[in-house]
Write a structure and sequence with these properties.
Layout lengths: L1 E4 L10 E4 L9 E11 L1 H8 L14 E8 L11 E4 L9 E5 L4 E2 L6 H4 L2 H15 L7 E4 L5 H12 L3 E5 L3 H9 L4 E3 L4 H8 L5 E6 L6 H6 L1 E9 L13 H5 L4 E3 L10 H16 L7 E6 L3 H9 L6 E5 L1
Parallel strand pairs: 8-9, 8-11, 9-10, 11-12, 12-13, 14-15
Antiparallel strand pairs: 1-2, 3-4, 3-6, 3-15, 4-5, 5-7
The structure holds NADPH dihydro-nicotinamide-adenine-dinucleotide phosphate.
């Protein structure tokens, strides 16, 4: 089968379109013909070696597609069913073996493109809004990279929870997309902390969601209100250097969280609950995943370049 293979970590050109052996499902896996593989920032970290993986490997962890075979111990999933998943290595490929415990049935009313935008970025946005910091009606929250994959979904979920949402973006097109997702105020990165204070009568935000990292972290602390929460969930601009705990006291006795999705989908019930929450929001029209583009699998390198060059708005997919 066709797949993308990384034999040695590096730039986007490390992603080689190759022929590899089709995986066979083990007893507790289902074999899926991939329709779309999601492109996520974690794929960039793994390709470049920031998050090391043994080589060679097939990148990608997210997607949607149709089940073609099921392992002997799998109950409740049949060939022909459509499923989505995240956290399954080897998703940049024509076929992937998905543990049944990670396979999420897709309702007939939801298209594959929409379903493949939800598992990783959607469930991340969901736990960020409801667990890392529990957004309450009337809160003011700041979402960095508001036109990104996570950013657009988090903005919509935060609005649905009754928050005033401030976002940062780097271009006019991204500002328009962020507003379209419901952002109340869209800011540039320069001087955003002062702008957040101005918009909150000097108080600051209840929570700042920061997936940008190195370039925003200091000002994110500045943008918080007393006893606010900084949720650092990524590092698209680079990793944040070590933080001296006393800084959190000086910033107003603030909380700093550094969550990761795997710790919020621990049991099958938790995984299903988070995905079901997203499907309900989609059905109600409150969550509209925005597709930036879908590239052929062979153009995975271009996809990584565009994601890291800040050229995408919303979800980027690889079509099989
Ligand atoms: P995005 O679609 O948000 O793309 C990254 C965005 O970051 C860019 O579009 C850009 O938006 C912004 N950005 C700011 N500075 C830089 C920079 N120097 N280089 C590149 N991009 C920059 O990606 P995702 O939605 O896939 O992921 C967003 C973040 O969330 C990532 O950091 C990712 O690692 C993290 N993440 C964390 C998870 C967790 O559980 N902790 C799970 C999923 C994702 P702009 O141009 O508007 O600034």
């Amino acid at each position: 089968m066709k797949a993308i293979v990384v034999s040695s970590p590096g730039g986007p050109s490390a992603l080689k379109f190759s022929e590899v052996e089709e995986p066979g499902p083990t007893r507790d896996q289902v074999l899926v013909r991939v329709a779309y593989a999601g492109v996520n920032y974690i794929d960039v970290y793994q390709r470049s070696g920031v998050y090391p993986r043994p080589v060679p490997f097939v990148p990608g962890g997210e997607g949607a597609g149709q089940v073609v075979a099921v392992g002997a111990d799998v109950a409740g999933i049949r060939p022909g069913d459509r499923v989505a998943w995240e956290g399954v290595p080897g998703s940049y490929a024509e076929y992937v073996a998905v543990p049944a415990a990670k396979a999420l049935p897709i309702p007939d009313t939801v298209a594959d493109e929409v379903a493949s935008a939800l598992p990783l970025q959607g469930m991340t946005a969901q736990y960020l809004a409801t667990a890392s910091y529990r957004i309450a009606p009337g809160d003011t929250v700041l979402v960095h990279a508001g036109a990104g994959g996570v950013g657009l979904l988090l903005t919509q979920l935060a609005k649905a929870l009754g928050a005033t949402v401030l976002t940062t973006v780097s271009s006019a097109a991204k500002a328009a997309a962020s507003r379209d997702a419901g952002a109340d105020h869209v800011l540039g990165y320069d001087g955003f902390a002062a702008e957040v204070r101005r918009l909150t009568d000097g108080a600051g935000a209840h929570a700042v969601y920061d997936g940008v990292g190195a370039s925003t972290f200091d000002d994110s602390l500045e943008a918080l209100r007393r006893r606010g929460t900084l949720v650092l969930f990524g590092a698209s601009s680079g990793q944040v250097p070590p933080v001296e705990p006393q800084r959190l006291a000086r910033a107003g006795s603030v909380l700093l969280a550094r969550p990761t999705l795997a710790d919020f989908v621990v049991s099958r019930a938790e995984l299903e609950d988070r995905f079901a929450y997203l499907l309900r929001q989609v059905a109600a029209g409150r969550l509209r995943p925005r597709l930036h583009a879908s590239y052929p699998l062979a153009e995975a390198a271009r996809a990584h370049r565009d994601l890291a060059d800040r050229a995408t708005i919303g979800k980027l997919l690889l079509a099989l």
